[in-house]
Amino acid sequence: MSTAKPPGGLVWFDEPPPPPATDQLSRERVVAAAIALADESSSGEITMRAIASRLGSRSPMALYRYVGSKDGLTDLMVDEVYGEITVPPPGDWRACLREMGLSAWAAVQRHPWFARMAFSRPPLGPNALRLYDSAFAAVDELGLDAATRVGFINTVLGQVFGSGLALLEELAMRSRTGLTADSDLEESARPYLERIKAEGRHPHYIRWLAEPDRSAEVVTFEQQLEWQLDGLQRLAGERRT
Predict the structure, then answer these.
(1) What's the pLDDT tens digit per position in 149-172?
(2) Contact 42, 172 (CB under 8 A)
(3) Where is the Tetracycline repressor TetR C-terminal domain (predicted)?
């Protein structure tokens, strides 16, 4: 019977331990170099060759001994960032989920690529499991069914990852076009928006463009998170009655 592992297997699944560290390479060094390179890239894209070069290794293939595969490296990178997210001890479920959301958003801002990679691999590493265990403990007080409990947690994390994907794409667009400042973006769009106004085919959008307060206050992630928590609080109250 074949013992070959299917491609794309999680690094946590029956993987042998990595070999002993050398002066140049270890699992921790490979993961740290990969994260640093992804942080520096506007798109978050990295290659094994670039990681090897950063570590002073002549062979990118040598890295696979420590991470198993490119998917294995992704698992390790994602779980490393999950380790930056905090959930307070149980006591006030809303405060716990708020802190989880704010902490996760701070992690995404440091590592925008995390939002994309987190969607690509199951959260089964030790740090991800620790995070979910703490979040489940926080919502236990609500007495909700299993599907609703994970729904509460994923509503908050979904807001984080959705906002993170938008941030990642915006950073890539700004790097690609050279429109790095908001004023640059506004100026580049001005002729097109003036034409839309002149055509008059979208009256509600035109009215919104003309409103003096439309950009006075950008809706922040923190405000969006509070709206999410308001909805979850109402749902929790309904489920208790």
Answers:
(1) 999 999 999 999 999 999 999 988
(2) yes
(3) 89-234
**Is CATH 1.10.10.60 the right assignment for the domain spanning 27-77?**
yes
Domain 82-240 is of which CATH architecture?
Orthogonal Bundle (1.10)
Using an 8 Å Cβ cutoff, are 97 and 152 in contact? yes
Distance CA 42, CA 175 (A): 7
Domain residue extents for the chain: 27-77, 82-240
For residue 128, the tally of other CB atoms under 10 A from its CB is 21
Distance of alpha carbon 42 from alpha carbon 113, whole angstroms = 9
Any residues with CB less than 8 A from the CB of 96 and at least 6 apart, and which? 87, 88, 89, 90, 134, 135, 138, 139
* Helix axis angle, 182-199 to 203-210, nearest 10°: 140
Q: Compute the distance between CA of residue 130 and CA of residue 100 in angstroms, rounded to an integer.
A: 12
Q: Distance (Å, rounded) from C-alpha 71 to C-alpha 79?
A: 12
* Token pair 């499991």: residue: 129
Q: What are phi and psi of 10, to 5 degrees?
A: -65, 145
* Angle at the Cα of 220 from the Cα atoms of 219 and 224, rounded to 5 degrees: 85
pLDDT per position as a tens digit, 89-131: 999 999 999 999 999 999 999 999 999 999 889 999 999 999 9
Residue 136 CA to residue 216 CA, distance in Å, equals 38
Question: How many residues in the chain?
Answer: 241
